[in-house]
Design brief:
Blueprint: E1 2-3, E2 16-20, E3 26-30, H1 35-44, E4 51-55, H2 61-72, E5 76-80, E6 83-87, H3 98-101, H4 109-118, E7 120-124, H5 137-145, E8 149-153, E9 156-160, E10 169-171, H6 177-187, E11 193-197, H7 203-214, E12 218-220, E13 227-230, E14 239-241, H8 246-258, E15 262-266, H9 270-282, E16 286-290, E17 293-297, E18 307-309, H10 321-329, E19 334-338, H11 347-354, E20 358-362, E21 365-369, E22 374-375, E23 378-380, H12 384-396, E24 397-398, E25 400-404, H13 407-410, H14 416-422, E26 426-429
Parallel strand pairs: 3-15, 4-14, 10-11, 18-19, 22-24, 23-25
Antiparallel strand pairs: 1-5, 2-25, 2-26, 4-6, 5-6, 7-9, 8-9, 11-13, 12-13, 15-17, 16-17, 19-21, 20-21
Helix pairs in contact: 1-2, 1-4, 1-7, 4-6, 5-6, 6-7, 8-9, 8-10, 8-12, 10-12, 11-12
The structure holds uridine-diphosphate-N-acetylglucosamine and phosphoenolpyruvate (PEP).
Residues 36, 39, 105-106, 133-139, 174, 176-179, 200, 318-319, 341-342 line the site of uridine-diphosphate-N-acetylglucosamine.
Pathway: Cell wall biogenesis; peptidoglycan biosynthesis
Main location: cytoplasm
Active site: 129 (proton donor)
């Protein structure tokens, strides 16, 4: 075992992804473990006595940040390959510095876990990709229902749970993924029973509950709108395999699709992908599933995607909106997208237009008139999925595309260029 040092690139600002378009992508790929599952699972390690051993952790800068937070809290973190081992028995602190909080949105899920473990927590507001306002009012409201006292001072959240957290009734005004996770983490060891209604139903919630239950928690109904958590006094660290990343899978499918290619993905949970599979099928792609494998075969020219409306799970995931928009951009006809989750998640559209796409925006609606051919140009990633979408568009474009600020892509895709090269793409980090 070595001290944890995942080989994330932590790249400097002047780096770019260089794509020479035109190659048809063909081949096989094993999909990484889910970022959005790994991060709350690492926070869950704080609640456990003994070691948490997580297999299938992707090598991402966000995972690196989560491990840095854990180490700063006094946890021991080691890794072998994609297995991370965390022991929180020697935890010494209950605060996270602003510099780490602002690195990623998921830093906020440490709040529920630290509060439960220490009875107090001090941290600031989380950072992450700019997708419009991303308040945490629902997280704080939910934790207050469990007895937390939270004050905001100079941008810092000062949280205590005098007498410990107690179970309670919580109804979320919106099925927020992060607020649901924070509540599961806070309630798992609270005194008494917590009932959460209008909970997020994303598969990552089930993964978190699955791990906590393996450690001794009593959580019922994860994956449904009503979750019941009977608090237990102790949780014991366990071994667990992170679920496959449904958004990474959709991204590689889109990459193959825009090049008229064929890709066989391994380690996929097709059930989690149902909301996006119909979008692929509407473009004329053939999709075949067998066990944990999924085969996508794209036609030479895609049909339009027609309609995409992002919604909480089981609706179409907002995280797949940008990659799928690249397919609409080269489809034979007009597609209409409606982004219902985040206020400002179309920053990639203007950059796609630089590559020759025809996308018009009006509020939450994007109208995409497919063009037969994109043409390479310098563009800039403004967020994680938008950055991946620009690389995908570059694969379909004639000539060279340079995508600046690839550090966004490193937040969510492990070995992105390497994986695309394995499928035949001409793509390099420069
Ligand atoms: C690390 C992680 O898992 N990130 C995912 C998580 O983000 P995240 O957990 O931040 O997303 P939420 O489900 O909380 O946010 C959805 C919507 O609710 C709003 N909201 C949320 C919390 C709150 O306290 N108040 C509030 O108004 C947000 O501004 C947003 O408009 O779910 C999103 C929606 O599927 C995904 O795009 C992100 O990839
Ligand atoms: C928006 C995302 O992540 P985060 O919530 O961590 O910013 C994402 O994974 O697409």
């Amino acid at each position: 075992m070595e001290e944890y040092e995942l080989e994330h690139t932590g790249c400097a600002r002047q780096e770019a992804v260089l794509v020479r378009g035109g190659n048809r992508l063909c081949g096989e790929l094993t999909v990484q473990g889910a970022k959005n599952s790994t991060l709350p699972l690492l926070a869950a390690a704080l609640l456990c006595e003994g070691e948490t051993v997580l297999h299938n952790c992707p090598a991402l800068s966000d995972v690196h940040t989560a491990v840095t937070i854990l180490r700063r809290l006094g946890c021991r973190c080691t890794h072998t390959g994609d297995t991370l081992t965390v022991c929180a028995d020697g935890m010494t602190r209950c605060d996270i510095p602003h510099s780490l909080m602002r690195e990623m949105r998921s830093s906020i899920v440490f709040l529920g876990a630290i509060l439960s473990r220490c009875g107090e927590a001090r941290l600031s507001f989380p950072g992450g990709c700019e997708l419009g306002p991303r308040p945490i009012d629902l997280h704080l409201e939910a934790l207050r229902k469990l007895g937390a006292e939270i004050r905001e001072e100079h941008g810092c959240l000062l949280c205590t749970a005098p007498g410990g957290l107690r179970g309670g009734f919580v109804s979320l005004a919106f099925p927020s993924v992060g607020a649901t996770e924070n509540l599961l983490l806070a309630a798992a060891r609270a005194k008494g029973t917590t009932v959460l209604t209008n909970a997020a139903r994303e598969p990552e919630i089930e993964d978190l509950a699955g791990y906590l239950n393996r450690c001794g928690a009593h959580i019922h109904g994860a994956g449904e709108s009503c979750i019941v958590i009977e608090g237990v006094p102790h949780l014991y660290g366990s071994t667990y395999t992170v679920m496959p990343d449904r958004i990474a899978a959709a991204t590689y499918m889109a990459a193959a699709a825009v090049t008229g290619g064929t890709v066989l993905l391994r380690d996929v949970n097709s059930e989690h992908l149902l909301p996006v599979l119909s979008a692929f099928e509407s473009t004329g792609c053939a999709v075949m599933q067998s066990g944990s494998e999924l085969l996508l075969r794209a036609p030479q020219r895609l049909k339009p995607v027609r309609h995409v409306r992002t919604m909480p799970y089981p609706g179409f995931p907002t995280d797949a909106q940008a990659p799928v928009m690249t397919m609409a951009a080269v489809g034979d006809g007009t597609s209409i997208f409606v982004e219902n989750i985040f206020e400002s998640r179309y920053k990639h559209a203007g950059e796609l237009n630089r590559l020759g796409a025809k996308i018009k925006l009006e509020g939450k609606v994007a109208v995409i008139e497919g063009v037969p051919q994109l043409s390479g140009a310098p563009v800039s990633a403004e967020d994680l999925r938008g950055g991946a979408a620009l690389v995908i568009a570059g694969l379909a474009a004639q000539g060279e595309t340079q995508v600046m600020h690839p550090q966004y892509i490193d937040r969510g895709y492990a070995h992105f260029e390497e994986n695309l090269r394995a499928l035949g793409a001409d793509v390099y980090r420069i």
